[in-house]
Amino acid sequence: MKKFSILAACLIIVFPCLGMAPPNDKQDFYYKLASYWAPDLYQDTGHYPEGDYITAFDGDGDWKGANNLESLKAGRFGPYHAYVYYQVIETRTHYLIIYEVFHPFDYDHPLLKCLEGAYHENDTEATMVIVQKMPGKKFGRFRGLETRPHGYTRYYALDSDVRPPLFKLIEKPSLRDGHHPEIYIQRGGHGPYALHAREHGLFYRHEFHADTGVVYRYKGEAQAPSGPDDRDVGYELIAIDGERGFWPRRCEREAFDKRREYKPPQGRPGIPRELLCDDGKLPFNLNGDDSGDSGSIDSGGLPWNHLTPDPAHLVDMTWKFPEAFSTEYVYNPFLGIDRRDKRENR
């Protein structure tokens, strides 16, 4: 759970007040890969559905994080066009596809609004799909799914020979058409879980709590829900490292405030100095969200924090696959690695 400042004037002129992203390069392989594995999102809605609709961080017309609750109350995020942020990280053997959903407001319960820490401005939650490269299969083979509700990790796999960390609960996810993971997202707190899986390890979630919810599916178009019980809303993808993503704006104080130094694990690559901010650090918090004060560099609300800037190392340390898993990157923008021109043709 966490947070994130104004697009260039020319983009605001071209895409006025709708929070609409410039067109993606739909021929880009990473976009097509992320589209193929894009999750279906079963968003529960509560007493404040406007706080539960997914949208873009700059859906209110700017990249200022500290005014998003004000913008939400004023209706400036409406009509809540649906976007999901994504990032493809490629190693020699696998694709790690990160999906981040953004909500302008996170709340636990209406009666808790007066309690410190029970709510905060700006909220991102992470899901990662692990895909094995396969000869003859352009978009690879599904190997595992991770979700990060409230800083905890949930593990899901289809095959019995794929294992998560020792003593960790693993369940089978459901994949629509064999390649769209179905994800349930809580109302209020917005924690993501595989649909029909155990929530907090205790209870199964088979349906929306109040029988109202919005079902978002990738359609390559940012649609808006008609209300809190709309079961067919399309979303568009925004590349985290693209022109409308979080990564190019990582050093903008209006979008991100608190910063920390990233210390890579022993033997692993660090972040090049030219990618760090002037103080040699990276932000771990969206401006306006105070809930990340005690968070670590690995559990903050930003995409490079949810799964670390080095997610292949994290996967290698936690998951066990029968096939070889390489931690050598072909592409990782968070570490400044791009060897795509040297790889073999897919």
Secondary-structure element sequence? HHEHEEEEEEEEEEEEEEEHHEE
Main sheet properties: 14 strands, mixed
Question: End-to-end span in angstroms?
Answer: 36 Å
Helix count, DSSP H or I runs of 4 or more residues: 5
- The stretches of 5 or more residues where confidence is low (pLDDT under 50) are 1-21, 292-300
Shape estimate: globular
Return the structural class.
mainly beta
Strand content: 25-35%
Q: How many extended strands?
A: 18
- Whole-number mean pLDDT: 83
Radius of gyration (CA) equals 19 Å
Report the helical percentage.
under 10%
Number of domains: 1
Explain what this protein looks like in three dimensions.
The protein has helices at residues 9-14, 29-36, 68-73, 303-306, 311-318; strands spanning 40-44, 83-91, 94-107, 119-134, 137-148, 154-156, 170-171, 175-176, 180-185, 192-194, 198-199, 203-204, 213-218, 233-239, 259-260, 282-283, 329-332, 337-338. Residues 1-21 and 292-300 have low confidence and may be disordered. It has one domain (9-340). The longest helix has 8 residues, at 29-36. The protein has 346 residues and is mainly β. The two termini are 36 Å apart. The strands form 3 sheets. Strands 1, 2, 3, 4, 5, 6, 7, 8, 9, 10, 13, 14, 17 and 18 form a 14-stranded mixed beta sheet that branches. A two-stranded antiparallel sheet has the order 11-12. It contains 5 helices and 18 strands. The protein is globular.
